[in-house]
Amino acid sequence: MESFCFKIVEPNTTSPLKKLFCPLNGASDKFGTFAQNHYMTSIPGKLLAQINSPADLRKLGKEQLPQLADELRTFILDVVSANPGHLGASLGVVELTVALHYCFNTPDDKLIWDVGHQAYGHKILTGRRTQFESLRKLGGVSGFPVMAESEYDAFGTGHASTALSAALGMAQAARIRKTDRQHIAVVGDGAITGGMFFEALNQAGDSNVNLLIILNDNGIAIDHSSGALKDYLLRQAEKTNSAAFSNPLFEAFNISCNGPVDGNNLYELLPAIEAVSKQQGVRLLHVLTTKGKGFEKAERDQVRYHAPGTFDRQTGAIAQAGKLSEIPLYQEVFGQTLLELGAINPNIVAISPAMVSGSNLGPFMAQYPNRCFDVGIAEQHAVTFAAGLAAEGLIPYCTIYSTFLQRAYDQLIHDVALQQLPVVFCIDRAGLVGEDGATHHGAFDLAYLKAIPGINIAAPMNEVELRNLMFTAQLQTNKLPMAIRYPRGTATTPQWRQPFESVETGKGRLLREGNGVAIASLGHPGNFVAEALDRLQTQGINCTHADLRFLKPLDTTLVHRLFDNHHTIITVEDGVTGSGLGSELAMEAIRFGYKGKIINLGIPDSFIPHGKPHELHALCGFDTTGIEKTIRQNLG
């Protein structure tokens, strides 16, 4: 009899994944083999070509800075038009970036960008210009500030509203150590809607530290700003800059205020920054910028040009803009399905924390404006707000990216699950999202949800299953919260708009039967399994494939059938292997007394870098080729 074996596939010192991480941990080539084989095709302007660090920038005369800003904006447009990234935010802060590095002694002075969407100019001016075309590519420059990438990235920022807390901590450390330096937190008007910002503001106003808050006010985060703060800031922006300027909101926190100033006009911005740099204590400079500044289409359509994908450098035309592809994105299927369900069930409402367009809630919001809520960058509030709606008999579809739902874990437990409120969590961007990298991968939702009692957790293998799970959720047959997770990107078939069918909670699907080896998959990676098994079948190798569909409750009847008839079970999931489908089957195997082998394929115990999703799936070993290889190794 074989002894029980639970194997987790993880990177080791010789694996491609481990080698990829090594450059980010002190090696001389911080961008790995990509930079060694990459050649620049975008040519920097005459002044920009001389800037290899902010020290070079500070050698320029002030009269040269507008030209440098123009060259920096041009360079960003040249690169990002062909190599997609976050465009609009970085264009909007070009002048602000130049001014901050010119006026402050970075990296000794600590400059922290909230979120980091706007940090491209910062990266180019701080020694990464020649690698900038590797932006967001495997082994290349990250799209967000990363401490391991550069000493100028004072703090890693991929989620909103964290910069002030981090800067305040650094400022307190400098006070304790009697270090004389400046601390600058650049926070957008969208990011200040997050609770963390006000928590930090409360402490900052009662502290004796040297800290400057730059309020980068452009009236938009990814979608247009929502809530009362946007109107307050608009009223402030209409005031003239004068010594008598007053901002009651921030002054109530004992913070002196300066501005507003035109953040896209260096002749106005530089004197303002020089003035506040000479001040002491905690103070704020209100800076008005235009997202997409300097590129007409990006200024006119700020939502679409936040991250437009590839676009024509001259005309601004976006590839495939506005066209629904033959095979849609999961997000498009979600949005259209919710629109259909909204017509069927008037109790359905939708909630998004500032991700209406990204989650494709726009059609629902247009059709049902009184039933769709953009609560701003406030995930904790979004979850408890949904709980309140559910407590009064409505059916809230709370749509949050997997990486951002992490920020509302306490609310998931206490305000939803503990009270058994039937909130439907539509978890977008589950799994490896690609070029946004470690801060945005939806690697942990299966693990952190699985630990919560009284919640159903489902992951559709395709868009038809997504529709049916969404339909089932609003039937509220068991009155429990339900999480439905789905990935970013293209689904599987153009025949996705099929009649709704209810799904039995906790019931999986046996897709094919073979012998010896069985593969149990959860979610979209089941398609990789199907492709691998199709390849093997042409060679006379037949394996069993079960799409479990639910992590919780687990279909133990189907799982025990796999145990009874196979010597090896391979689990495949796009979550961390340490606490997801694989670990759940391992525990069930122990309870059942299964004596075969269990092998987990999924995301290993590492933070996965940025790259194209198929590259990252291959690195982690659960793409089609990796699955096929693992099956072959275990046929005997």
Q: How would you characterize this protein structure?
A:
It is a single chain. With 636 residues, this protein is α/β, with parallel strands linked by helices. The strands form three sheets. A seven-stranded mixed sheet has the order 8-7-9-10-12-11-16, sandwiched between helices. Strand 7, helix 15 and strand 8 form a beta-alpha-beta unit. Helix 4 packs across helix 6 and helix 16 (379-391) packs parallel to helix 18 (409-417). The radius of gyration is 26 Å and the shape is globular. The two termini are 14 Å apart.
Keywords for this entry:
disordered N terminus; 6-stranded mixed beta sheet; 7-stranded mixed beta sheet; 636 residues; alpha/beta
> Numbering strands along the chain, what is their spatial order in the largest sheet?
8-7-9-10-12-11-16
- Backbone shape: globular
Average pLDDT for all residues: 90
- Count of helical segments? 25
**Biggest sheet, open or closed, and with what strands and sense?**
7 strands, mixed
Low-confidence stretches: 1-15, 21-39
| Distance from first to last alpha carbon | 14 Å
Number of strands: 18
Strand percentage, roughly? 15-25%
User: Which structural category do the helix and sheet elements fall into?
Assistant: alpha/beta
- The percent range for helix content is 25-40%
Q: Tell me the radius of gyration.
A: 26 Å
Quick structural summary:
This protein is α/β, with parallel strands linked by helices. The protein has 25 helices and 18 strands.
